[in-house]
């Protein structure tokens, strides 16, 4: 038997199994001499001068609020595991929002546990420690450090996140033996859920998920700063696209998608969602992410895109741009109607207003335009009551924004859609008009035109602030901006 056949990995769900060799690998095994050689001769790389992550104070306050909401209960919040893309390759990992929000950590297999104490909770972050040099995991296992990069040691993690750290490989066993009430955030770590299967209920776990979603409705100062960073990078990404529209015309919408993605990866973590680079009639498909169509002079380009920061906060901005730099008469007519609707929507965003107010304000303007153009029979009140404008407006006028592009989605309806706006909330205002290419109820000149304008709006003490105001919105300003960007 070779040494390799006796080695055990450091992954939490395979701790009793040997490290497996790739079936068609070029090396059939590891000699005793090589295995011994690989154990020694490595420098001490412990990082001893680490500073806490910038949001450490905020994550501590968030954990305190969570502790106060569920006294006396064990709370388990997993980061999640790697997901296979195909065969032995994985998707890029993104930690669960709940876990990242409470810890600042983003590594796979991590778990935050809040253990109940007489007063409050004691938090522990469970992580994979550094790869084991003794059993060869660091160079033989597919997730060993020589393959995927160095992990922080547990002591380093404690300094970074301000939370005591322990080996996650020991957690499942400890949870199986645990007593007392437990709640877990489901859907991220099947192994952890299996260890708790006889201790949790769906109803209690949903209460935990809802609380953590509602906790993100009002952003703290750190979060607002991250959202502004995301928007600022997104503005630069839109400028990048305008500069290369000639190359997109020579290729496809993919050139636009790729151009924006470069900005997102250079200045942030990733795009916050699949970029919509919809030219011509594709703009009428709300979630057009194939981005494989032609980009033609004379058509409109609907670009819906957002940069995600390294801390997972994303922008969500849409501009509808004339590919050749000038709106046609009918394009301008439709665009200006959407702009007027967005102006009404943004004006309705203020503390104390109902969440629905900005949607209602924008929809009223669009309904008025549709009646004025003879596309639907009035009066406007009838149109709105019956929702007849929705044939061409299709979607709601906005949503909460944060670590998810549709943030706080698990919040209760009474605190979200039926709630009241507060300072610190951040939402999108994004009305649109979409005239499908095969819609025989509208004049032919309308068909195939889709327009959406979307901005990220922060509710302030005195009203609101448009985080994405650096990108022009009015049709004449859009044309002038495109001229300036293209030089």
TrEMBL record:
Its EC number is 3.4.11.9. It comes from the Bacteria. InterPro entries: Aminopep_P_N, Creatin/AminoP/Spt16_N, Creatinase/aminopeptidase-like, Pept_M24, Peptidase_M24B_aminopep-P_CS, X-Pro_dipept-like. Its cofactor is Mn(2+). One of its GO terms (molecular function) is manganese ion binding. Pfam families: AMP_N (PF05195), Peptidase_M24 (PF00557). Keywords: Aminopeptidase, Hydrolase, Manganese, Metal-binding, Protease. Gene3D superfamilies: Creatinase/methionine aminopeptidase superfamily (3.90.230.10), Creatinase/prolidase N-terminal domain (3.40.350.10). One of its GO terms (biological process) is proteolysis. GO terms for cellular component: cytosol. Residues 54-193 form the Aminopeptidase P N-terminal domain. Residues 1-27 are annotated as: Disordered. PROSITE patterns: PROLINE_PEPTIDASE. It catalyses: Release of any N-terminal amino acid, including proline, that is linked to proline, even from a dipeptide or tripeptide. Belongs to the peptidase M24B family. This is Xaa-Pro aminopeptidase. It comes from Streptomyces viridochromogenes (strain DSM 40736 / JCM 4977 / BCRC 1201 / Tue 494).
């Amino acid at each position: 038997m070779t040494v390799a056949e006796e080695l055990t990995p450091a992954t939490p769900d395979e701790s009793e199994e040997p490290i497996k060799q790739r079936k068609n690998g070029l090396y059939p095994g590891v000699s005793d001499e090589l295995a011994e050689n690989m154990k020694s001769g490595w420098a001490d790389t412990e990082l001893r001068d680490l500073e806490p992550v910038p949001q450490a104070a905020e994550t501590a306050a968030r954990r305190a609020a969570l502790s106060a909401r569920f006294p006396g209960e064990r709370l388990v919040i997993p980061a999640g595991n790697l997901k296979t893309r195909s065969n032995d390759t994985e998707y890029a990992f993104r930690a669960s929002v709940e876990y990242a929000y409470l810890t600042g950590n983003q590594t796979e297999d991590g778990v935050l546990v809040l253990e109940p104490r007489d007063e409050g909770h004691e938090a522990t972050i469970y992580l994979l420690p550094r790869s084991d040099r003794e059993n060869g995991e660091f160079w033989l296992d597919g997730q060993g450090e020589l393959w995927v990069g160095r992990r922080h040691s547990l002591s380093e993690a404690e300094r970074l996140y301000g939370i005591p750290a322990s080996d996650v490989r020991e957690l499942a066993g400890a949870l199986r033996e645990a007593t007392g009430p437990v709640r877990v955030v489901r859907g991220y770590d099947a192994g952890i859920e299996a260890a708790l299967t006889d201790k949790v209920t769906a109803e209690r776990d949903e209460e935990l998920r809802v609380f953590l979603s509602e906790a993100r409705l009002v952003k703290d100062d750190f979060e607002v700063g991250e959202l502004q960073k995301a928007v600022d990078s997104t503005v630069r990404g839109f400028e990048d696209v305008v500069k290369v529209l000639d190359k997109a015309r020579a290729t496809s919408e993919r050139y636009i998608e790729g151009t924006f993605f470069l900005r997102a990866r250079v200045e942030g973590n990733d795009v916050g969602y699949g970029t919509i680079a919809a030219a011509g009639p594709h703009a009428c498909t709300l979630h057009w992410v194939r981005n494989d169509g032609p980009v033609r002079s004379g058509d409109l380009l609907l670009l819906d895109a957002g940069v995600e920061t390294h801390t997972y906060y994303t922008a969500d901005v849409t501009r509808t741009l004339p590919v050749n730099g000038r709106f046609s008469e009918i394009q301008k007519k439709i665009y200006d109607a959407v702009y007027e609707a967005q102006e009404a929507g943004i004006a309705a965003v203020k503390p104390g207003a109902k969440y629905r107010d900005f949607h209602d304000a924008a929809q009223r303007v669009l309904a008025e335009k549709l009646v004025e153009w003879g596309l639907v029979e009035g009066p406007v009140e009838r149109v709105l009551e019956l929702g007849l404008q929705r044939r061409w407006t299709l979607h709601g006028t906005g949503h909460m924004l944060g670590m998810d592009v549709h943030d706080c989605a698990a919040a209760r309806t009474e605190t979200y859609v039926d709630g009241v706006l507060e300072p610190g909330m951040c939402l999108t205002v994004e009305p649109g008009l979409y005239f499908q290419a095969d819609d025989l109820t509208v004049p032919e000149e309308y068909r195939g035109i889709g327009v959406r304008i979307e901005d990220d709006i922060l509710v302030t003490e005195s009203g609101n602030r448009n985080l994405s105001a650096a990108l022009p919105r009015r049709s004449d300003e859009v044309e002038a901006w495109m001229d300036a960007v293209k030089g």
